[in-house]
Write a structure and sequence with these properties.
The chain is mainly alpha-helical. It is built from 20 helices and no strands.
């Protein structure tokens, strides 16, 4: 496909993404499922060119920013608090699934070498950060479950990639050493952390010295690729490098970003992530066409590989249930052995953790990267796509219903270790009032800023009342901000009338409009505040 035609085709895909996203919202379907199904449908339309892509390029283009987006918003205290549970999933569940799938495939196809069976298991074992984020963004879970699922999706790709590389090497060379594999995994992980620390530190130091909005946004957007490519170039885990860099950047961005940079960069980043996530699922859908054509059509693929694929699907889903339930009940005696008081096992939480194991871009990319000489390559490609399709469309589409059925919706004020909105607002407003008091009088003691002093004193008094009885403000709060938003809308209409009448310059229009936008954003946020 010529370069111009490729660009036009990408534009068509972006239009398709908008349409599929609107359809998903109208039908209340997960975006990932709609985009995946849409990609499959578009790929088989008459006249649509065949799309092929380099799997390494897919990982390099899509994975770093999508991992960064998850790591950037990671709550470090909660991540550290539940790190043990995260590692049980990100390392233990991936290894267990790889082993279980390998054994099951070799049972069905005894002629396939063990190393090739375990390579297939490594391909389908790691749940995907993109798929998990696409689903978790639409649901509300207790914090522990959210942290476990998000943390697992950030770290398990590294486990799956290491297992895959060793399995492929063993299948092609016939040599494998468990000791070398363990040492390599530890070295890759520690090296990735080191690279992430260096890149994250350099990004923070650089942003402290940049006072230009667009340059700061550009530098921050380059950071995930810098961490990933830097890690891979020195032969350590680029995935862990990106996650480490993202956690550091997310921790320090409150200090290094101005309000203007943060507001603009957040808007730009959200659009970028939306497009990348959507394109990933579209490309996954397109990849089915190449897999089907390689296998000689749908009928031939089902005839020759139908049973092994069903075995892989069943093993992938069942093995996660076995691992999650087993570790949930084992962690209680293990915690007591080290003197800790663990939470009791929760069958409902374990069921959800077991069900929310969607696969995505990493499974597809590493499957497509298999060498041509790899035994069982066709089975691995077909099984990888089947696992992605079933877990995203079926499991991803039903996670919300499962949460409601299990009664696991997040409750407000669930964690007393944190201040609620009213308590935090009171402390912030009090600090602002003290700053205003210090500047409200001149050297002779004359009040020179009475309006500001009155305004911030009033805010503190309201915050005090709200922190004590927030329920008393519920109805009045919404009504208050409805009036504020109506006033802003009236001001915006008058601004546009003056501009259309030629009475104000465009430069003044943009200046006042930005002020009204900030007022509206603040009012909408305050009106919809969860009150946590």
């Amino acid at each position: 496909m010529a370069s111009t035609e490729t660009f036009k085709f990408i534009l068509v895909l972006l239009v398709a993404i908008l349409a599929l996203e609107l359809i998903a919202r109208r039908l209340r379907l997960p975006s990932a499922a709609a985009l995946l199904a849409g990609g499959i449908a578009i790929a088989f339309l008459p006249g649509v060119p065949e799309v092929s892509f380099d799997p390494e390029l897919v990982l390099t283009v899509f994975l770093p920013p999508l991992l960064m987006d998850g790591a950037f918003y990671t709550v470090w205290a909660e991540f550290r608090r539940y790190l043990g549970g995260i590692l049980w999933l990100a390392v233990g569940a991936v290894v267990f699934t790889t082993f279980a799938v390998g054994v099951a495939v070799h049972w069905v196809l005894p002629s396939l070498p063990w190393a090739a069976c375990f390579a297939l298991g490594a391909v389908v074992s790691p749940p995907d950060a993109v798929a998990a984020k696409a689903v978790l963004d639409k649901v509300r879970l207790p914090r522990r479950l959210t942290v476990l699922l998000e943390g697992e999706s950030l770290l398990n790709d590294a486990t799956g990639l290491v297992l895959f590389r060793f399995a492929v090497a063993a299948a092609l060379t016939g040599a494998f050493s468990m000791q070398d594999a363990l040492l390599s995994f530890v070295g890759l992980s520690l090296g990735g952390i080191a690279v992430g620390l260096v890149v994250g530190g350099l990004v923070v130091l650089t942003l402290r010295r940049i006072d230009h909005v667009f340059l700061a946004i550009t530098a921050s957007c380059l950071s995930p690729w810098a961490a990933y490519i830097g890690g891979e170039s020195v032969h350590v885990s680029g995935v862990i490098a990106v996650v480490t860099c993202g956690i550091i950047f997310g921790w320090y961005q409150h200090d290094v970003f101005t309000a203007n940079v943060r507001m603009r960069s957040t808007a730009f980043w959200q659009v970028l992530i939306f497009l990348l996530e959507a394109l990933v699922f579209i490309l996954i859908g397109f990849s089915l066409r190449g897999v089907i054509e390689r296998l000689g059509g749908v009928g031939q693929a089902l005839h020759t590989l139908g049973v092994p694929i069903l075995v892989v699907l069943g093993t992938v889903i069942l093995s996660r249930f076995v691992w999650v339930y087993a570790t949930d009940y084992l962690r209680v005696p293990l915690a007591r052995m080290v003197g800790r008081k663990p939470l009791p096992p929760s069958p409902k939480a374990s069921f959800l953790l077991s069900w929310a194991g969607m696969r995505g871009v990493v499974t597809l990319a590493i499957a497509l990267s298999l060498p041509e000489a790899m035994p069982g390559r066709d089975l691995t490609l077909a099984a990888a796509f089947a696992v992605i399709l079933v877990t995203v469309v079926i499991q991803g589409s039903t996670v919300g219903a499962i949460i409601r059925w299990l009664g696991l919706e997040a409750e407000r004020h669930a964690d007393s270790a944190y201040l609620n909105e009213g308590q935090a607002s009171l402390l912030i407003d009090s600090a602002q009032l003290e700053a205003v008091k210090a500047c409200a009088y001149d050297d002779q003691g004359t009040l020179i800023h009475p309006r500001l002093l009155e305004q911030y004193t009033y805010r503190v008094s309201v915050a005090e009342r709200y922190s004590k009885t927030p329920e008393a403000f519920t109805g009045g709060r919404e009504a208050h901000y409805d009036v504020v938003l109506a006033a802003i809308a009236a001001g915006r209409a008058e601004l546009l009338r003056l501009h259309r009448a030629g009475r104000i310059h465009d430069e003044l229009l943009h200046y006042i409009e930005r002020d009204l936008d900030l007022q509206q954003i603040e009012a909408e946020n305050d009106r919809e505040s969860p009150g946590i």
